[in-house]
Structures are given as C-alpha cells and as structure tokens.
Design a protein that fits this description.
Layout (H helix, E strand, L loop, with lengths): L5 H72 L3 H19 L5 H13 L22 H5 L6 H8 L4 H14 L3 H9 L2 H7 L3 H8 L10 H5 L2 H6 L10 H16 L4 E12 L2 E11 L4 E8 L5 H17 L9 E7 L4 E6 L6 H10 L3 H20 L1
Parallel strand pairs: 3-4
Antiparallel strand pairs: 1-2, 2-3, 4-5
Helix pairs in contact: 1-3, 2-3, 5-6, 5-7, 8-9, 12-15
C-alpha cells in the first residue's frame, strides 16, 4: 500500500476523533444510567422503609387505643380482677374469629400493658392531661405521632421493669436511630446498668450508639415483621433460605409418602414465648401414636442449644397445641450438614420408657431420614448447577 494522501489522512484523523468522542459519550451515558438505577433502587428502598414505619406507627397507636379502652372498661365497671380476665378472653376470641392471628390473650394483655406503661402521652405543659380519646380531641394519625418508635421497639421496652432504664433505652433508641435488634442487644447486655456504673458515661454512650453489622435490618425484614404481617392480615410463610425451603418441602412429601399415619398440620408454624417469636419448620400429627410431631431443620452441626430449643417447643406444644385426649408431642431435629447429616428424636418429655420405645418403633428410623437428607441435598445441588 502507498502512503495516504493528505485528504485521506485528514479523514482518518476526523474518524479517530469522532470515535474517541463517541466513546466518551457512551461512557457518560453508562455512568448516568448506572446513577439512575442506583438512585431509583435507593428511592424504592427508602419508600419501603417509610411504608413499614407508617404501618408501624398506625399499628402502635391502634394497640395503645385498644389498651386504653380495656383499662377504661375495667375502671368503669369497677369489678374484681376476674372481670378483667373475662374482658380479655372475650376480646381474644372475638378478634381472632374476625381478624385471624395476632389477637391471642397474651397479645391483648400486651396492648393493655402498653397503655399502662404510657398512660400520659397527652400530658400538657401545665401538667394536666388532655382528653386523648379517639374521635374526640385526637385521631389515629395524631395519636401515631406520639409514638416515634416501632411496635417491636415498644415490646422490647415493656420488658424493662426499671422505669428509668426504660426511659433511657427509649431515649437512646431515638437519639441513635437504633434498630429493634440493636435495642434488644443493648437491653440483654445491660447497657443501662453498665452506663450508670461507668465513670466515663459519655464514652459509653458513644460506643453504645455504634451499630454492629448484625443490627442492620433491611426494608424487607421490617415489612415482614410478624407484628406488621398480623396487623395487615397477611400470611407469614417464608423460610430463611432457599435450601431450607426446598428441604422442608421435600421432607414434608417424604413423610406423607411413608404411610397413612402421618397427617400434615403446618409448615413454619409460629409460636410466641414471652416477647419473642419462634418457628417450627414442620408439624405433623401421627394418627397411631395420637401425638404431634414437631420437626426442626438446622443447616449446620447439631448443638445442645438445638436440643434445648426443641424441648422448649415441646413444652409449648404440650400446653397450647395438644388436646386432652392426645399423647405428649415428640420432637425431631434434623441437622443437614454436607459432611454428615444428624437426626435426633427428643423423647425426654414422654411419661415412661415403654412409650418412648413405642414411639421409636412407629417413627421413621434415624438412618432412613439421614439418607433422605443426603439424597435431597444432592438433588438440590444438581438442580442448581443445571
């Protein structure tokens, strides 16, 4: 090839310049597009958080008002404690019938206790209390403004018996923007007592306001709070991970295929002990044994904590889920670890060894369940690779 003519050389130079400009424009467009996406993602996350907080504030105001009405009714009738028990029982039955979960007696007592913990939220500057009755001087939205924290926060705060400690944790939650996890951690670590005893209180408060990674809550977690779901009448049927969900569903089908003795009762059945929520992965009823079978799946090694938690579930099930003509429930702990699957039956709550032996004869063999766990895990892993 010969040398380029001045005209072609000029054209080539123009082409290269145009190409460089085009690349710059593309780069800017991509940057703007990335900024647009990240900005909208942030906006939607923020909107979801605001939605959760809005629901929470209305819910908190509603529960306070329910508690106020119960206490007012008790005072109006001026009857013995038995009358208050009757009110709560009737309310729990009627509200559960109309609205479903979330209105057990323990929850109603909690609403009553919430009002008694915060009876003077309409206290004026002069020290006199304004009316504060729903429909008179205030409404739900105005009432909601009196409770800047979520209902989950107030549930934790009500567990603090020391009034000064409760006010301290409430103030620090507001000042530091604590999530409910951070509040729970600080209460459990006796942050109030440690700060009171500390010589350098300012340093303690600065250190205490620093969140940890485990304290963070996503918008999805806030929206899927059991309290919010119950208040909105929504179902709570999600597992902690896809692997757990797949294993639970497969084990459910496997046990039902073993014969007609197993009757499915519930998946992810929730129970509440004090102010904490727990989930039992699977609940079956064994017709021949006339007993509930509680199954808890753990992704990892078996630990003594797992056994202790199962016995807590069994005690709760014995008291709240077992009918008078049924035998005590039995627990099954499945630990699905890659290196070794472990299966443990919790039979200590049974009245005698003969019954325990009968249960072991009727229930699936441990090695059979271990083999099924291993087979299921392999199947799930192969499916994921396809």
């Amino acid at each position: 090839m010969g040398t380029l003519t001045p005209q072609l050389r000029r054209k080539q130079k123009e082409f290269l310049m145009l190409k460089a400009v085009t690349k710059k424009i593309e780069k800017r467009l991509l940057a703007h597009s990335s900024d647009l996406v990240s900005g909208i993602v942030e906006l939607l996350e923020q909107a979801r958080r605001y939605s959760a907080r809005a629901v929470n504030s209305i819910m908190t105001a509603t529960y306070w008002e329910v508690g106020r009405r119960i206490v007012e009714q008790e005072q109006l009738k001026n009857k013995r404690a038995e009358y208050g028990e009757q009110i709560v029982t009737r309310l729990a039955d009627e509200l559960t019938r109309r609205f479903g979960r979330g209105f057990a007696k323990s929850n109603i007592y909690q609403m009553r206790g919430f009002f008694l913990s915060y009876p003077n939220i309409f206290q004026t500057a002069s020290g006199k209390s304004s009316k504060g009755k729903l429909g008179e001087s205030t409404g739900l939205q105005e009432l909601a403004q009196k409770f800047p924290l979520s209902w989950s926060h107030y549930v934790e705060l009500m567990g603090v018996r020391n009034e000064h400690g409760r006010k301290f944790y409430e103030a620090e939650s507001l000042r530091g923007g604590w999530t409910v996890r951070q509040l729970e951690r600080q209460i459990n670590s006796q942050f109030y007592e440690r700060t009171a005893l500390s010589r350098n209180k300012e340093a303690m408060l600065i250190k205490g306001s620093s969140p940890r990674p485990e304290d963070r809550m996503t918008a999805e977690e806030e929206i899927k709070s059991p309290y919010v779901l119950e208040f909105l009448g929504l179902k709570d049927e999600y597992s902690e991970s896809d692997l757990e969900e797949a294993l639970i569903r497969h084990l459910e089908a496997f046990l039902l295929e073993l014969g007609g003795d197993f009757t499915f009762v519930a998946r992810q059945k929730r129970l509440r002990i004090d102010d904490r929520w727990f989930r039992v992965d699977l609940v079956f009823f064994h017709r021949r044994l006339r007993s509930l079978l509680l199954i808890d799946l753990k992704i990892g090694e078996f630990s003594y904590e797992d056994a202790g938690q199962m016995h807590m579930y069994l005690n709760y099930a014995q008291e709240n889920w077992t009918h008078s003509d049924e035998n005590p429930p039995v627990g099954l702990i499945l630990c699905a670890k890659k290196s070794a699957n472990v299966v443990k039956y919790a039979l200590d709550n049974l009245p005698n060894k003969i019954m325990a032996a009968e249960y072991l004869t009727a229930l699936p063999k441990e090695n059979l369940l271990e083999q099924e766990l291993e087979k299921t895990q392999r199947m799930i892993e192969m499916r994921g690779k396809q």
